[in-house]
């Protein structure tokens, strides 16, 4: 078993378990027997009365799980005051929904402490009316809930130029999380103010010190799916994630889902803020930059076994997460021979559009060095590209939108390492 | 039958009124004065730029008081983003993206300084000071003479070297929708 998931609940299917036992009875049977004889129920601590009930549930003292604040590519183990993001521990999560306190964070000027009683949303521009809304107004409106991923457009940026072999999956892919989000459909506000037909771009602006602002194209998809959200995973937004109000555009660059939302302005062209010109654009090899590359592409990563874990020969369950900003994941394939051959992984249901999907596959490692890699496909037919295809299209300076297949190499000792391909 | 028709017409009418009255219950109209307080964005054509002006010379003083600690003397060598130089590096293995080498619009610089800078106290520079520090950063990049001055008419005319360096995604060049 991998070290990091050894205490996780087993979710193997009886059929594959039987098949595996038949296939590897010799090796695995001996190992299991050895462990069993060293163990006895007599050593399990006696039952005892526990702590009194309380107002909230803390994690077990035996569970060490947290995000890690980082700066740019290669700038890890930084002082939190120098960090620009904080990454989700994908290798320690189960299922597909991220706990609220472990959702990745990207903030541009700290986390403001906003009093909801004093917070206001201004909606104006090319519309019949300009409105000021309080949080009470917004919470009184019809609401929707939706499970969706958010991904920082910088997710994966550690591997553009080279692979640091000491990285975990939290370092390489920790800028994605999945939540249930609750709020008012953007379309409701659009109808409320009477947006002009000729308004096709919307500026969304935050109440943080940087006043982060992005122009959002008002496609039918955005108008149908965007949410002005005040809830995450059944509770009010947490300050790091935009309390009391944020925009949520499923499947698109996280930066567009403006936190601490305080202004929506309707216009007829992009406003060309710093973030959509100088910052979140992708510099190609020819020196030109792709702009408004807003959809987070089809992607996946194996979370176990993954970087810095150690596995033993015999049975190993491969598991990971897949997602696409275009729709639902329709399949994930896994290669355990460095991309030469592929097998379909099992998807845990439900598989929701624009949400992370958990995949897994039984594997018997023969103890020889190899590479494992996953490749996802979405229901629009997009297939996660290999690294070569990504670099051919984007060069190595793009910084954002890296969705290449992630390879983990495994050496003869079972050490799992981050490699480019 | 006519009374049924009248009843139906009445209920349809009532339905419309209910929906309209319901919608009006949310929020209050924003006044032009308060919109002006928050309506700070500036477009590349200059729409949104306020009345006022600032000189490169004044901008140097303001920069040295408010910006130099993070962005370095002359916009280079600081602990945060480099603002000057980098021209000719965008196709190299180590591109240097600065205001001069990468930013496509001079108006975005004004917008960004006004909304987000100085980092510790955004919004504390006045309009003239914002024009001035914008002018100074542009002059450091050779885009404005040392005797230069900027206002809402002249700023959008400063043509940035990388103005044509961006390729908008085809799917968002022309946006069509159903409402």
CATH first level of the largest domain in chain A: which class?
A: Alpha Beta
How much of the sequence lies in strands of chain B comes to 5-15%
Number of helices of chain B: 6
DSSP helix fraction of chain B: 25-40%
The most extensive contact between chains is: A-B, 59 and 44 residues
Distance between the termini of chain B: 38 Å
CATH topology of the domain at 51-165 in chain B, anyone?
Cytochrome Bc1 Complex, Chain D, domain 2
The CATH homologous superfamily of the largest domain in chain A: Oxidoreductase, molybdopterin-binding domain
**Beta strand count of chain A:** 24
Identify the quaternary structure here.
heterodimer
Biggest sheet overview of chain B: 2 strands, antiparallel
Mean pLDDT of chain A, nearest integer? 92
What coarse outline of chain A follows from CA principal-axis ratios?
globular
Query: What would the CATH topology of the largest domain in chain A be?
Result: Sulfite Oxidase, Chain A, domain 2
Low-confidence stretches of chain B: 1-23
Radius of gyration of chain B: 25 Å
3D structure, described in words:
The complex is a heterodimer of chains A (421) and B (179). Chain A has helices spanning 14-38, 135-140, 169-173, 186-193, 220-225, 274-279, 387-394, and strands spanning 68-70, 85-87, 105-106, 120-125, 131-134, 144-151, 176-185, 201-206, 213-217, 227-232, 235-236, 246-248, 261-267, 282-283, 289-291, 299-304, 314-323, 329-335, 343-344, 346-347, 357-365, 370-378, 407-410, 416-419. Chain A is an alpha+beta fold and 421 residues long. Chain A has 2 domains: 68-272, Oxidoreductase, molybdopterin-binding domain (Sulfite Oxidase, Chain A, domain 2, Alpha-Beta Complex); 299-419, Immunoglobulin-like, CATH 2.60.40. In chain A, the strands form 6 sheets. Chain A has a 5-stranded mixed beta sheet. In chain A, strands 6, 7, 10, 11 and 12 form a 5-stranded antiparallel beta sheet that branches. In chain A, strands 19-18-22-23-24 form a 5-stranded antiparallel beta sheet, with no helix packed on it. Chain A starts with 13 loop residues before the first helix and ends with a strand. The model of chain A is unreliable at 1-34 (pLDDT under 50). Chain B has a domain at 51-165: Cytochrome c-like domain (Cytochrome Bc1 Complex, Chain D, domain 2). Helices cover 39% and strands 6% of the residues of chain B. Chain B has helices spanning 2-24, 32-38, 56-66, 68-71, 106-116, 127-140; strands spanning 28-29, 53-55, 149-151, 166-168. In chain B, helix 3 packs across helix 6 and helix 5 packs across helix 6. At the A-B interface, strand 4, strand 5, helix 4, strand 8 and strand 13 of A face strand 1, helix 2, helix 5 and strand 4 of B.
């Amino acid at each position: 078993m991998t070290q990091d998931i050894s205490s996780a609940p087993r979710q193997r299917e009886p059929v594959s378990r039987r098949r595996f036992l038949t296939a590897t009875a010799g090796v695995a049977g001996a190992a299991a027997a050895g462990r069993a004889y060293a163990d006895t129920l007599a050593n399990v601590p006696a039952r005892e009365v526990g702590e009194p009930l309380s107002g909230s549930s803390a994690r077990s003292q035996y569970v060490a799980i947290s995000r890690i604040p980082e700066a740019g590519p290669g700038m890890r183990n930084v002082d939190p005051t120098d960090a620009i993001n904080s990454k989700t521990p994908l290798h320690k999560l189960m299922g597909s929904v991220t706990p609220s306190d472990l959702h990745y964070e990207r903030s541009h000027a700290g986390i403001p402490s906003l009093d909801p009683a004093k917070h206001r949303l201004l909606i104006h521009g090319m519309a019949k009316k300009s409105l000021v809304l309080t949080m009470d107004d917004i919470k009184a409106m019809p609401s929707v809930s939706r499970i969706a991923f958010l991904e920082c457009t910088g997710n994966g940026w550690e591997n553009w130029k080279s692979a640091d072999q000491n990285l975990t999956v939290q370092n390489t892919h920790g800028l994605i999380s999945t939540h249930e989000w609750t709020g008012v459909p953007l379309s409701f506000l659009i109808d409320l103010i009477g947006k002009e037909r000729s308004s096709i771009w919307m500026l969304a602006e935050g109440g943080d010190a940087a006043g982060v602002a992005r122009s959002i194209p008002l496609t039918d998809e955005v108008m149908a799916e965007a949410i002005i959200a005040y809830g995450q995973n059944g509770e009010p937004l947490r300050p790091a994630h935009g309390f009391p109000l944020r925009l949520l555009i499923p499947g698109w660059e996280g930066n567009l889902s403006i936190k601490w939302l305080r202004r929506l302005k309707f216009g007829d062209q992009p406003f060309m803020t710093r973030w959509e010109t100088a910052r979140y654009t992708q510099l190609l090899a020819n020196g030109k930059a792709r702009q408004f590359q807003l959809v987070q592409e089809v992607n996946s990563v194996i979370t176990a076994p993954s970087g810095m874990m150690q596995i033993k020969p015999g049975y190993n369950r491969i598991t990971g997460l897949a997602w696409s900003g275009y729709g639902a994941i329709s399949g994930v394939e896994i290669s355990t021979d460095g991309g030469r051959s592929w097998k379909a992984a099992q998807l845990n249901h439900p598989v929701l559009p624009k949400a992370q999907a958990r995949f897994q596959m039984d594997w018997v490692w023969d103890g020889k060095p190899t590479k494992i890699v996953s490749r996802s496909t979405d229901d629009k037919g997009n297939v996660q590209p290999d690294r070569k295809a990504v670099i051919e299209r984007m060069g190595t300076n793009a910084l954002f939108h890296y969705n290449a297949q992630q390879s983990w190499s495994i050496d003869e000792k079972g050490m799992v390492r981050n490699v480019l391909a | 039958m006519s009374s049924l028709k009248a009843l139906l017409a009445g209920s349809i009418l009532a339905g419309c009124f209910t929906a309209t009255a319901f919608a009006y219950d949310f929020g209050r109209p924003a006044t032009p004065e308060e919109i002006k307080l928050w309506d700070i964005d500036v477009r590349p054509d200059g729409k949104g730029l306020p009345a006022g002006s600032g000189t490169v010379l004044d901008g140097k003083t303001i920069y040295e008081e408010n910006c130099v600690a993070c962005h370095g003397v002359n916009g280079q060598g600081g602990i945060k983003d480099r603002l000057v130089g980098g021209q000719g590096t965008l196709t190299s293995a180590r591109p240097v993206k600065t205001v001069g080498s990468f930013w496509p619009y001079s108006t975005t610089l004004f917008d960004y300084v006004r909304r987000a800078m100085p980092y510790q106290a955004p919004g504390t520079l006045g309009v003239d000071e914002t024009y001035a520090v914008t002018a100074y950063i542009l002059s450091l990049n050779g885009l404005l003479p040392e005797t230069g001055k900027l206002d809402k008419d002249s700023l959008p005319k400063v043509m940035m070297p990388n103005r044509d360096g961006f390729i908008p995604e085809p799917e968002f060049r022309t946006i069509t929708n159903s409402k």
